[in-house]
Amino acid sequence: MTTVIIDYESGNLRSAEKSFQRMAAEGDGDEVLVTNDPDAVRRADRIVLPGVGAFADCRAGLDAIPGMVEVLQERVPAGTPFLGICVGQQLMTTLGREHGHDAPGFDWIPGECVGITPTDPALKIPHMGWNALQDLAPHPVLEGIAPGDHVYFVHSYHVVPNDPKHRLGVADYAGPITALIGRDTMIGTQFHPEKSQTTGLRLIANFLAWRP
User: Fold this and answer.
1) CATH code for the domain of 68
2) Catalytic annotation, residues
3) 47 DSSP assignment
4) In angstroms, rounded to a whole number, what is the distance separating the alpha carbons of residues 142 and 54?
């Protein structure tokens, strides 16, 4: 089976590629391919969409690759297992509200990506560093991951889904911020699993083993 990590010039994908290849080798030996080829995405058994930076810029980067948005809209709602990471997760929602401008997401999980507003003004934005997961919903990709496990965040925005059941976990940053969203055969992490050591590698291995 093949897992593709989509390359649309949004950050350095080397750490993600290495983490997925490591867990694939320890599992069923799936092929992990970093690609910007929509045909490769169409043929893939699983799709990973990373993302670093601004919501609108990442959406524009995908739009700039002929056929990429179309193949994502074809494959992901149809049931191809999908993992969005950081801004890749944010793009799963309906709308990104950043810097006074709205940008369209994929609308797979209705809701909005909005700025983090801690109740404690002493807390800095962006939210950066290790934080504990809380309120985890049961999910195959979260098997073996428990409340209190720490993961690595770098972000100023988070997803607020319209339906609370689509929020699969939170972290506390002077109030709850969305750490995970998901529905059907798609899941997204606001944190970076490829930088989250044991917990992140466990999530990646679970995703590679997921047979929804």
Assistant:
1) 3.40.50.880
2) 86, 192, 194
3) E
4) 27
